[in-house]
Amino acid sequence: MKQLFAAVAFVACLAGPATAAPDAVQTAADFHAALAAGDAEAAAALLADDVTIYEEGWVERSKAEYVARHLPDDIAFSRQVTMTTASSQTFTRGDTAWVISEGTSKGTFQGKPVDRVNAETMVLRLDQGGWRIVHMHWSSHKAPSTTP
């Protein structure tokens, strides 16, 4: 069902004009800020219970699974590595928003240098409590060498 939602959301995004969603953008920013601050409770509060998170080929199929398995690592990474957003687009249609971003991650994590180019897609749903993240897809690759 979640895969169907993601496919429908993608098709809907392409189907016609969409508008910006400043509150959804703020929710995405608040999620990243909570990770960087080490605030697992605040980060989890921004996720829908039925969130699906894809990261580098791994998948968590609920908030409970993500909180138990991967959230602590994402917090540790976010606290040690500087992430910069180079570009971002936001679209909304009804109670669904998409925040699509590209950027970089640089620093040191677990004693190893990090220099990555990142892509992130967040799909958010508006409910009585505000915007909640229902899907995230993170991917990255090694940054191109800057030495000749």
Task: Tell me what the structure shows.
- This protein is an alpha+beta fold and 148 residues long.
- The protein has a single domain (2-13, 20-142), classed as Nuclear Transport Factor 2, Chain: A (Roll), CATH 3.10.450.
- 36% of the residues lie in helices and 46% in strands.
- It has helices spanning 2-15, 22-37, 40-45, 63-69, 71-80, and strands spanning 47-55, 58-60, 81-93, 96-109, 112-127, 130-142.
- Strands 2-1-6-5-4-3 form a six-stranded mixed β-sheet.
- Strand 5 (112-127) and strand 6 (130-142) form a beta hairpin.
Number of strands: 6
- Taking Cα atoms only, what radius of gyration do you get, to the nearest Å? 15 Å
User: What low-confidence regions span 5 or more consecutive residues with pLDDT below 50?
Assistant: 1-17
What is the highest CATH level, the class? Alpha Beta
How would you classify the helix and strand content by structural class?
alpha+beta
Largest sheet: 6 strands, mixed
Sequence of strands across the biggest β-sheet: 2-1-6-5-4-3
CATH architecture: Roll
- SSE pattern: HHHEEHHEEEE
Shape: globular
Question: What's the number of structural domains?
Answer: 1
**Distance between termini?**
48 Å
CATH fold-level label: Nuclear Transport Factor 2, Chain: A
The tally of helices reads 5
Q: Give the percentage of residues in beta strands.
A: over 45%
Helix content: 25-40%
